[in-house]
Every structure is written in structure tokens, then in C-alpha cells.
Automatic annotation (TrEMBL):
Domain of life the protein comes from: Eukaryota
PANTHER family: BNACNNG10540D PROTEIN, F-BOX PROTEIN CPR30-LIKE
Matching InterPro entries: F-box-assoc_dom_typ3 (IPR013187), F-box-assoc_interact_dom (IPR017451), SCF_F-box_component (IPR050796)
Matches recorded under NCBIfam families: F_box_assoc_1
Any Pfam family the entry gives: FBA_3
Domain F-box associated beta-propeller type: 16-219
Name this polypeptide is given: F-box associated domain, type 1
Length: 286
């Protein structure tokens, strides 16, 4: 485990802690205090050469008036056809400070590193709130969306090619499960479902998306004797990570199918995100 100092300022105030937006081709996208500074500070950082770029202000920055009435989501990925890195920002307007109360579609804009500018997306935008962490695979973002806490979550996608949103058909489950997360691995996308046993999530089912984003195959079933607080994702060493209700890290080996307990505490008020990191020499010199 390593501690890394960022080259840009981060407030010591816990509510302005560093938010990981995503990692792609050796670049990290970070947003300090995403929910408390109205999403204004967004950075793309090359960790190896210690170069970073602060993104320009949102096209909607004049509308950022009250953090209690707004919710921000940021996604980061690489668009291979244009050889360009993109950041997607969703801006939700919530009622009475209640996350489950959203009755208008979010504002959406896409940042291009190549042009160093934001573009407003005016395509049909779903009335759904995205979870914090999304999966990115072959130019498409996949995410778990919900309209309210009492409504069954759905699975959505956003394609960087045409900048269109789509709903993804979920797998036919063998028994009642709830969609917990959508995670990306090095070669595919997985939907993660949980089964309730003894009042907590006792079993995880990992379903692998088929070729061209069509169909699903159940890939793994994980017995979670210590319950599941939340899932982290896949590692390069072919392991799936999740956190127990006791805030301890668990790894499931995708080859041996064995579960290993790690004496590493990950509190619920902190986020742990799996970053499959690689080196990059991008200089931000355009």
C-alpha cells in the first residue's frame, strides 16, 4: 500500500476529500470535493510524469448555486476512433435535498481533452440517477440507475460514438436478486447481483455480458459469509474485491474460486476503487 501526494491542492476538510472519477491508459481523473464545491474542480493527472491538467469550467457553471439541491456525476474514458480522452458530467437537480427525489432529466455535457472544451449533449436523457462508479468498456459507459429507492434499479449505457443513452436488458435470474453494481474487467462487463440471506447480502452472482453487449452468462457465484457492504471491482490478478458489513476487504480468486479475507479496514465513509493502472507519457502539451 502506497501514499501518493497529488500535485494540486486538496483541502484537509473531510468533505472535500479526493474523488476518483476513473482511470484510462495511465491517466487518472480526479475531482476533489465533488459534491461540496459544485463539481467545479476536475483534474486529469499523469501520475508517472507528474503532469496534470485542470479542466475548464462547466458550460453550466452559472447555474451552480446550491450544493444541497444539486448532484453531480463524472465519468472518464477514452474514445478510440477520435484518439481523444473524454469526461462526461451529469448534473441532477434534486428536491428537498433528497437523493431519491428527481423529477427532471439531468443536464449532460462532454469534455474533450483534444479540444479542451465542454460540449452540451441534447440527446434523449433518461430520468435516472447514476451510481457513483461506472464501468467503461470499448467506448461505452455502463451503470446502475434508479429513479427512487422503492423502484427496481435498471442498467443503462452511454456510448461515446453517438453520445446516446440506452437501457440494457438484464439477465434472466434463477431466483430473486437485486442489482448491486455494474463492474468492468479487462475483457468484459459484469452485472453484480446480491441475494438476501439472514437479513443481509449473503450471496453475490456475477453475470458476464456477451459479445457486442448482447446477452448474459452467469460466470461466478460467491458465498459471502460475512455479508456484503459494497463491491469494489476486478484486479489485473484475476480477483474480485468486495467489502464486508464489518468493513473488511475480501478477495475472490476467479481461477481457484477461493475467497481470502484481508485484515484491511475500509470504512463506509471512504471509497476504495480498483484502478487497473498502466504507465503513460501523455504531456498535455496541446
Amino acid at each position: 500500500m502506497h501514499t501518493i501526494q497529488t500535485p494540486f491542492p486538496v483541502s484537509p476538510d473531510p468533505k472535500f476529500s479526493l474523488n476518483f472519477v476513473g482511470s484510462c491508459h495511465g491517466l487518472l481523473c480526479l475531482a476533489p470535493g465533488l459534491e461540496h464545491n459544485l463539481g467545479k474542480d476536475v483534474y486529469i493527472w499523469n501520475l508517472i510524469i507528474r503532469k496534470y491538467k485542470k479542466l475548464p469550467l462547466s458550460r453550466y457553471s452559472d447555474m451552480f448555486l446550491d450544493e444541497k439541491l444539486m448532484l453531480f456525476r463524472l465519468w472518464f474514458g477514452f474514445h478510440e476512433p477520435t484518439n481523444d480522452y473524454k469526461v462526461v458530467r451529469l448534473i441532477y437537480f434534486i428536491k428537498n435535498g433528497y437523493l431519491g427525489s428527481v423529477d427532471v432529466a439531468p443536464l449532460v455535457e462532454v469534455y474533450s481533452l483534444r479540444s479542451d472544451s465542454w460540449k452540451i449533449v441534447r440527446n434523449d436523457v433518461p430520468l435516472l440517477v447514476s451510481q457513483n462508479v461506472v464501468a467503461f468498456h470499448k467506448g461505452v459507459f455502463y451503470w446502475r440507475g434508479f429513479k427512487g429507492i422503492l423502484i427496481r434499479p435498471c442498467m443503462m449505457s452511454f456510448n461515446l460514438d453517438d453520445e446516446m443513452f440506452s437501457e440494457i436488458e438484464q439477465p434472466l435470474l434463477d431466483s430473486p436478486c437485486s442489482l448491486l453494481a455494474v463492474k468492468g474487467s479487462s475483457d468484459s462487463v459484469f452485472s453484480v447481483y446480491s441475494k438476501l440471506y439472514g437479513g443481509h447480502n449473503g450471496v453475490l452472482e456475477l453475470w458476464k455480458m456477451g459479445e457486442n453487449g448482447r446477452g448474459w452468462m452467469k460466470a461466478y457465484t460467491i458465498e459471502c459469509n460475512r455479508g456484503v457492504g459494497w463491491t469494489i471491482g476486478f484486479t489485473r490478478s484475476n480477483k474480485f474485491l468486495y467489502v464486508t458489513l464489518e468493513e473488511r476487504l475480501i478477495s475472490f480468486d476467479l481461477e481457484s474460486l477461493k475467497t481470502e479475507f484481508h485484515d484491511v479496514e475500509i470504512p463506509f465513509n471512504r471509497f476504495a476503487i480498483d484502478v487497473n493502472y498502466m504507465e503513460s507519457l501523455l504531456l498535455f502539451d496541446h
